[in-house]
Structures are given as C-alpha cells and as structure tokens.
Known about the structure:
By secondary structure, the protein is α/β, with parallel strands linked by helices. The protein has helices spanning 7-24, 50-59, 78-85, 94-109; strands at residues 41-43, 64-69, 86-89, 114-117.
Amino acid sequence: MIIYFDRKTLYPLLWVISLVVTFIFGIRIKKTGNLPDIQFILIWNHCSSVDDVLNPIIMGTREWKVIFASGLNRIPFVGSFLKYIGIPVKRGEMESRKEASEKVMDYLGKKKGNILVFPEGVRGIAKDSKDH
Length: 132
C-alpha cells in the first residue's frame, strides 16, 4: 500500500499527529522565542526518540527536510516516510556528503522550505565516542 500526500497536506498532517502523540504521552513543551519567517537551517542534537515527534511541532506547518543516514531507508515504513521529508547521506563517505550538499542547496535555492540537521546523527553515545 502506497500513501501519498502533497506538500500542502503532509506538513499540517504531521503537525496534528505530533500534537496528538505529545498529548497522549503527556509530553510538556515549553516554547521560548520564534522561528524566523524566512528560510532557515535548524541545528539541534538528538536527545531521545521523542525528538522525531517534536520536529513537526517545532517546524509547525512549514515545509522542511531532515538530513538522515541513508541506512534508515531499510526500516519498514520509516524508510518510505523519510523519502518525503528527508535527504539521505551515507555517513563517512565524501561523495555522499557532496551529493547531500548539492541536494540541500538545490532545495533551499528553489525556496521550497527549511532544513533540519542533527549534527551528532544519533541518539545517545556514538559507538566511536571516547566516553563509551
């Protein structure tokens, strides 16, 4: 089964679903400040799986794409979903980084939306971390 949403319905739908999920799980959100009305790149680190639920709430009904590890494409449902809202990157491969940079610049250049980046790329301690 393939489900397709156009841009005008996808982002408001994600926003509503995220609000419902946060309400069901009793997640409290404290907002300080506002995101700009112009295009932007939002950079924040993964703290938990809840981050993925909060993304649409933070971004509102604006269009956005998230940069993600291409290995997530293999996960059922998640991989299909990320095709709509993501730009895949193969970690550690320079060619993939260049390709992702070109996709990001193309996306921003066409004034389509905003970019969401998790620079550490993982939740918790990375396997190559010195603290691990």
